[in-house]
Amino acid sequence: MERTSSKVLASKGDAVSRALASLSSHPDQRVQAIRTLESLAENAQVRSSIIAFGGAKMLVGLLVRPNDQVLPFEKIRIANTLASLAASPPCRAVIINADSIPQLIRLLGIPEAQAAAITALLALAPQKGSRGLMATGALEVIAHSFKQADNFEEQTRLCQLLASILEGESVQERMPRVLAVVESPETVTGVIGLLSSSAEGILQAAAAVALICCDNNLRVHLMEAGALTALKKLLTHDDPAVVEQALEAIAAVVTLDRGDGQGGQSGLCATLDMEEMLSGEVALVVRQLQGATEEIRCAASHVIFRLAARGDIEIPLRAAEPLPALVSLIRVGKARTRAWAASALRLLSTTSEARETVTQSVPMEVEGREKLLAKIRTLCF
Fold first, then answer.
1. Half-sphere exposure of 195 toward its Cβ, with a 13 Å CA cutoff?
2. What is the annotated signal peptide range for this record (predicted)?
């Protein structure tokens, strides 16, 4: 078996060598070679051979050539090949160093090649590719697309690329890219517009909104641009994944970082009346504490915690009576859900009346009731 496997790999290595050699041959041979490499790159064991033989640089070299010399359908296959190669982490840096990102961004301008180019760029992003995406004009392409009306399918793909650009290891590392995005009014407006599109568009846009929320001023900017208004409308969406992502985005938008200014709030945040903006939807969020999936319940707990931590929407929050549902989640939720529920409960259980409500929310017939109440008292009172 081992000998057979070695023979197969050797055979595939020969196929890689022949295909790469044919890339500089007659166009018909080149087309066949590109197809062969696209197929071979799907094999994890063969990818390293393609890279070792200089395949990344050769493939990128074809992307550089004009469309009348290397046709768009060939470039699509090349982008697919680069995406497959990038699935192996050691290959990503080699592909990026071959100057692939600028060429893939140029490929975004060819409508039929856009999906393949985005797939390749997303595959490269984990290897610090997001910085390269920003430096080589990806944001300009995204902003241009968002200027076009009723172009939701393309904008959804590009919003996925935008989210990749916004991701990073820390807020400090991400902040320059986030600020560049926010400075593009077309991009911000376009992302918020996608919150009223297809389920996939909503998921991508909500993820981007959450990633932009790096500080209080950026959150206010998004609220003023209509992000919170659009997100609130998604709380009754039919798709559970949309509801979950909308809740997570709302949690990011309503977060209030302390210490940004006098009195614990930035001056800009102090101008917003959160109770007026969200009070009508607090009951909907509380209802989602008993939502259809664990993910929805976890995200709703997160929102309740963020609202409780703000301190400026306490009346509608208490009126929605979240305590019984939070107690239930501490009892039956998974670890992350329990953590958000307990954190929210701690902030909302500051009065004797609230603590009595919490105690009464644990049914008498529940097994281990006293143990559970002791745990809640330790964590929350």
1. 28
2. none
Cα 286 from Cα 268, distance rounded (Å): 28
Domain boundary among 136, 156, 186: 136
DSSP 200-213: HHHHHHHHHHHHH-
pLDDT for 294 equals: 98
Q: Are 141 and 105 in contact (CB under 8 A)?
A: yes
Q: Identify whether the C-beta of residue 315 lies closer than 8 Å to the C-beta of residue 352.
A: no
The number of folded domains in the chain is: 2
pLDDT of residue 264: 44
Amino acid at 373: L
Q: How far is Cα of residue 289 from the mean position of the Cα atoms in its chain?
A: 23
Q: Which residues contact 216 (CB under 8 A, 6 or more apart)?
A: 256, 257, 260, 265, 266, 268, 269
| Mean pLDDT in consecutive groups of 10 residues from the start of the chain, 381 residues | 52 89 95 97 93 96 95 97 93 92 92 92 71 78 87 90 89 92 94 96 98 95 96 97 98 86 44 79 96 97 97 92 96 96 96 93 89 91 87
Q: Is the dihedral of CA 365, 367, 370, 376 positive or negative?
A: negative
